Amino acid sequence: MAIAHVHPPFSTALSFKDKPFPLLTAPGMVNLVKVPLVEFALMGTKELCDYVSEAARQNMEVKALLLKATELSAWDLILQALITSQIW
After folding, report:
1. pLDDT, tens digit, for every residue of 40-79?
2. What's the number of domains the chain is made of?
3. Per-residue pLDDT tens for 15-32?
4. Contact 84, 12 (CB under 8 A)
5. Domain assignment of residue 88, yes or no
6. Helical H segments across 1-88, by residue range
7. I need a surface site. Which of 55, 60, 75, 78 has the fewest CB within 10 A?
8. Closest residue by Cα to residue 14 from 36, 42, 44, 41
9. pLDDT at residue 64, rounded to an integer
10. Against a cut of 0.85, is the pTM above it?
């Protein structure tokens, strides 16, 4: 398994608004299902690790998380779609 930690401007801006990440395209809807917003914590802290771990456990079907006031993290096969810009 691989993890992509990216900073697309749209998702970064949206993460400051406390709104769900909109899945506007068919590939996004099929591949991502939903993108939960994870509470803010400083990078590298145990608190952030706990927030991300809990969000992943509560949303086993998702392949991406939006970190509040920071960035997007995705994993699994979704990485190929991210790399080829099929979703973003």
Report:
1. 888 788 998 899 889 889 988 888 888 888 756 655 555 5
2. 1
3. 888 877 888 888 888 888
4. no
5. no
6. 9-15, 26-32, 46-58, 78-83
7. 60
8. 36
9. 85
10. no
Contact (CB, 8 A) for 63 and 48:
no
What is the dihedral sign for C-alpha 15, 21, 27, 32?
positive
Q: Count the neighbouring beta carbons within 10 Å of the beta carbon of residue 34.
A: 14
In a domain, 22, yes or no: yes
* Contact (CB, 8 A) for 37 and 21: yes
For residue 16, the SS3 value is coil
Contact present, 87 and 25 (Cβ < 8 Å): yes
Q: Is residue 39 part of a domain?
A: yes
Among candidate residues 23, 11, 1, 29, the one with its CA nearest the CA of residue 67: 11
With beta carbons less than 8 A apart as the criterion, state whether 31 and 1 touch: no
